[in-house]
Write a structure and sequence with these properties.
Elements: E1 14-21, E2 26-31, E3 37-42, E4 46-51, E5 63-64, E6 69-74, E7 80-85, E8 89-94, E9 99-105, E10 111-116, E11 123-127, E12 130-134, E13 140-144, E14 153-156, E15 163-174, E16 183-196, E17 202-207, E18 212-216, E19 222-225, E20 235-237, E21 243-246, E22 251-256, E23 268-271, E24 277-282, E25 289-293, E26 297-301, E27 309-314, E28 319-324, E29 329-334, E30 338-344
Antiparallel strand pairs: 1-30, 2-3, 3-4, 4-5, 6-7, 7-8, 8-9, 10-11, 11-12, 12-13, 14-15, 15-16, 16-17, 17-18, 18-19, 20-21, 21-22, 22-23, 24-25, 25-26, 26-27, 28-29, 29-30
Amino acid sequence: MLNVDPSKLNRDTIKVQTEFLLNDYVIDLAWSPCGKQIAAVTVEGNVFLLDINESLKNCEPIGNHKLGCNSVSWNPHASQFCTAGQDSKVMIWDSSSREKILELDAGGDWVSNVAYNPCRKHLASGASRTIKIWNDNYDMIYESDDHSSTIADIGWNPDGSGLAVAAYNGITLHVPHKQRQPRKYEWKGSSLALAWSPDAKYIATGEQDSTVHFWRVKSGADAQMWGFPTKVLQLSWSMDGRWLATGGGNSVCLWDCSGKGPEGRKPKQYEAHSNKITNVAFQPDGPFLVSTDLDNSLVVWEPLKHNKIVGGCLLSSAASSISWSESGLLAVGQKNGKLSIFQIKTL
């Protein structure tokens, strides 16, 4: 439960616009560029395409990955999205026809991540220890299969120039056709999640040993932050690149990365949750930060003004995945299969 009385939460700040019942644990979400559709994938492998102006009590999937799904990404330049499955396949879907148009072999037993390039019509996938990159015709143009462990996360540079990969022994940065070998940011530990700062100055990583790393992309120097109760899987940058929000326990921590960086600075801490935080996400073009926890709570903060809760609600089950649209809508997928679309606004 929350550390505050739920009846005292400002419910006028957060309102449900529509809800869908997918009847299975929602593992990942991706918004269309126009913000009118959302793709969702579930643990059992079902792929859904939803129109946010509708509300369906029982939604039918448009397709399925055998054994399960892990990741979904929407092409920012086209009406296509892709999904990653435990069947070693990357599937490409057309949002107009709602049909699968292509299958790609990702090169591993199961595909952990897919990500479209934000600036070019390229697609990257991570499967086992293999990274593959395809062009806009889905011809493979790059492959690297020498990672030291199963790939945990991938992320494109904000300008689309390179792909960072998190695994055991740190991160590697791949710039196809412009380097002989990927650049290594070495760390004798297991990196589980990564997030580029919007200015591409830092790559932040959440670690298995309950720490956070801040890697300076240009110099390769790093800083390590200790003191988290659990491994850190939740990372989100503010839109100006100054602040990094992290989970890794019951508190939301906000790290100031301006100037000389976060070294020697204590994070701002935001207390409301009584159980482990499952998601943190800054609004991409607005003042809000949202956090969720294992006790089904969703909390809205305006952290650059104060450390007080500005809104929140109790969900029907714990949030498993959250995603902001560019227009400021918040999609929340839950463990019980419910997908809710929230409007969040300043009063």
